[in-house]
Each structure stands twice: as C-alpha cells, then as structure tokens.
Amino acid sequence: MQRKTRFVGTKAVSYALKFITHLSRTEKTFQCLKPFINEELFETVLQIMFVSHKDANLFEENPIEFERRNLDFSQTIYNPKQVAIEFIGTVCGKYKSAGKTEKDKPDYIVGYLEYTERNLKKYNAMISQK
To answer: In 11-48, which positions are buried (b, 16+ CB within 10 angstroms) versus exposed (e)?
Structure first.
C-alpha cells in the first residue's frame, strides 16, 4: 500500500479522526458515515497503524523511551495511533452493541480483520525464515 496524499500533521490527523470517531458514536451520523467506513479503515486507519521507520529505529535504540511515548497520557492526546485504535473500537462496538449474530457482521469489519490476519501471517512466515 502506498499513501495517496502528501504529509498531514499528526495533530490534524488526530483531530480529524477523533471527530469522525465521535460522529460515528450516534446512530444517525453513523448511518451517514457507513458508506465511507471501509475507505476510512483501509486508506487512513491502516496507514496510521503501520510501524514507521522512525518508530522502528526508536524501538531498537531505546525501547523504554518507545514505550514511554506510547503510554504517556500527554502524548496520547495527539497520537494518531491511539485515536485510530479508538476509532476501530467504536466501529466494532457498533456491531457488538447492536446484539447482532455472527452472520450479520458488516463487510468492513470482516475485510479489515482478514487483511490484518494475512499481514500477520506474512510477518510470522518472514520472521520464522530468519
């Protein structure tokens, strides 16, 4: 996957995704956003969740600082990864709170989880070959 746009600041991305997350909590606005959820998950949230080169370097050089940044509350307010996790939780929570059965799973959740599973399997295969 490649990014389709240019750089957008982390605060702007965080606030935009937080806004969409809050909109998706009410049923009326969630229904309006529903046609765009799939694109939001794959084109925005998935891109945010990737480990960046900067993150990988920091983890190798100083794992304690890496964890501190991820867990520090003052940092999480503007951390797009935390906001993306919140968005995924809200979208999945919509399905769970509706009390729907297994066959009623929305396509966007199934597609997102299948894509994630495929990538994790590729990663595990790659790691086991080393």
So the answer is: eebbeebbebbeebeeeeeeeeeeeebeebbeebbbbb
Residue found by looking up tokens 């480990």 in the block: 51
> Per this entry, what is the length of the chain?
130
- Which residue, among 115, 36, 92, has the nearest Cα to 16 in the 3D structure? 36
Can you give the pTM of this predicted structure? 0.70
Separation of alpha carbons 125 and 27, rounded Å: 41
Cα distance between residue 79 and residue 58, in whole Å? 16
Helix axes 10-23, 27-39, angle to 10 degrees: 130
Helix (H) or strand (E) holding 117: helix 107-129
Q: For residue 86, give the DSSP letter.
A: H
Burial of 58 (0-12, 13-18, 19+ CB in 10 A): middle
- Residues whose CB falls within 8 Å of the CB of residue 98, separated by 6 or more in sequence, listed in order: 104
Q: 19-67: per-residue pLDDT in tens?
A: 999 998 888 998 898 888 888 888 888 888 887 888 889 999 999 998 8
